[in-house]
Design goal:
The protein has a 6-stranded antiparallel barrel with strand order 1-2-3-4-5-6. The model has no long low-confidence stretch (mean pLDDT 88). By secondary structure, it is mostly beta strands. It has one domain. The chain has 1 helix and 6 strands; from the N terminus they run ββββββα. 12% of the residues lie in helices and 42% in strands.
């Protein structure tokens, strides 16, 4: 099993860390930080201008610096047969 990893930036220190992607959708990205029994999940939501995804874990803000359009393009590239959802 291959785990998809992305790099996120901790805004407080500017440090970049690599995290495992648990699930990825255009509306949110769930990542797992840490390994083993000390791992924690964090949900990254799009920012207001949709130029990045941001979330908070243990009081620290983390940012994935890719826009919503770029993530949608990545998802379409991975599974081109997936039809877009219909509006309700």
């Amino acid at each position: 099993m291959v785990n998809e990893k992305i790099k996120v930036r901790i805004t407080e220190t500017g440090q970049q860390i690599e995290v495992v992607v648990y699930s990825r959708h255009a509306s949110s990205i769930q990542v797992v930080i840490g390994a083993g029994e000390h791992s924690m999940k964090c949900t990254l939501s799009p920012t207001r201008n949709e130029m990045a995804y941001a979330g908070s874990i243990m009081g620290r803000e983390i940012v994935y610096e890719r826009s919503v359009a770029q993530v949608k393009a990545d998802l379409d590239k991975l599974n081109p047969t997936l039809r877009p959802s219909r509006p309700r």
